[in-house]
Design goal:
Fic-like fold, Arc Repressor Mutant, subunit A
């Protein structure tokens, strides 16, 4: 089993792209703090939308889905799960809510990670909920011909508890001693967690929940208002590519985690900038139509109703739909598709 020593990571010289990401994230985090002081109550609507989007998209990455209406009802706890997918969605909702409400009381350790995993599966009859894997697992991909290709072989089950303990200890040590920049330590930890692949099922969703938890604990609260999971889902091919490129040599401690670090930092920065866009629309006193119009003007190419809803969190769904209909009727927008495939394009 490989050794873990996060102290040596701090000795690396990072390229200008990574340093640029870190500087930009701190700048955006500072601006977010000012926004929250100015309009704290109004921004609470963003929290509701982000919870729904995070729960929906993180599960959808793993093929766990239900209807938009059911997702909203489940996240708002206005209904009970009807099937296995909805049971797993409800479990994700509970873990995410716990992180939102009590992140400062959830230290990083194997025991706490196992407890969060148990909550993730609390609505299902999963005998391995809250336990590390008991069978060998593999990270694989299906090629165009339908053949399964093994991309990476994680540690064996007997090695997993110790490996999980070590990465938690190393992360806590370098963060506690301020030996490593948190925005470097978090991607490194998440990358190691994904390489260990500690569970029979739920590794991807747990990694995304832990990303949010660690960011909160280090003072980066963007995931509360903008769904990081939705960002990852939108570019999941880039996510898997970065992860795959960073896994080579991992067992010997010779991996290059830079592609994954850059991917995750870019995702975090994009979310912060989305927050700024939403705030700029919120702070103006506009009618529903003008608010939707301003949101549409910020979009390039095709965009969905959900994209506008996220930019206009204080408008009801019916207000957004009504404004979009008016803009289509006036020729400002062109509508394409139907149902979930409906999208809009600005007409210049």
């Amino acid at each position: 089993m490989r050794n873990f020593n996060y102290s040596t990571i701090g000795n690396q010289k990072w390229d200008s792209e990574i340093l640029g990401y870190i500087a930009a994230i701190y700048k955006e985090a500072g601006k977010q703090e000012l926004y929250l002081k100015q309009r704290p109550e109004e921004l609470e609507k963003l929290v509701e939308i982000a919870k729904i989007r995070s729960t929906e998209t993180s599960n959808a990455i793993e093929g766990i889905v239900t209807t938009d209406t059911r997702i909203r009802q489940l996240v708002e706890e206005k209904t009970t799960p009807k099937n296995r997918d909805e049971q797993e969605i409800a479990g994700y909702r509970d873990v995410l809510s716990l992180i939102h409400e009590s992140f400062d009381a959830i230290p990083l350790s194997r025991n706490y990670i196992l407890q969060l995993h148990k909550i993730l599966y609390s609505y299902t009859n999963n005998p391995m909920a809250g336990q590390t894997k008991n069978v060998r697992n593999y990270i694989s991909a299906v090629d165009p011909d339908g053949r399964i290709e093994i991309l990476f072989t994680p540690p064996a089950p007997f090695e997993t508890p110790g490996a999980l303990d070590r990465i938690c200890e190393e992360y806590n040590r370098v963060i506690g001693n301020m030996q490593l920049e948190p925005l470097i330590a978090i991607p490194i930890f998440i990358h190691d967690f994904l390489c260990i692949h500690p569970f029979n099922d739920g590794n991807g969703r747990m990694s995304r929940l832990l990303t949010t938890l660690l960011l909160y604990r280090c003072g980066f609260y963007v995931g509360k208002y903008i769904s990081l999971e939705a960002k990852i889902a939108k570019n999941k091919d880039l996510y898997y590519d970065a992860l795959n490129r960073s896994q080579n040599g991992w067992h010997k401690g010779e991996e290059d985690a830079v592609p994954f670090i850059k991917y995750l930092l870019g995702t975090i920065l994009s979310a912060y900038r989305d927050f700024g866009d939403r705030f700029s629309i919120v702070e103006e006193k506009l009618s529903a139509l003008d608010m939707v119009r301003k949101a549409a003007e910020s979009k390039i190419g095709r965009f969905a109703k959900q994209d506008i809803r996220e930019l206009c969190p204080y408008l009801s769904l019916s207000s957004v739909e009504g404004a979009l209909r008016k803009m289509v009727a006036s020729g400002e927008l062109r509508r394409e598709g139907a149902g979930k495939a409906t999208c809009y394009i600005r007409v210049e």
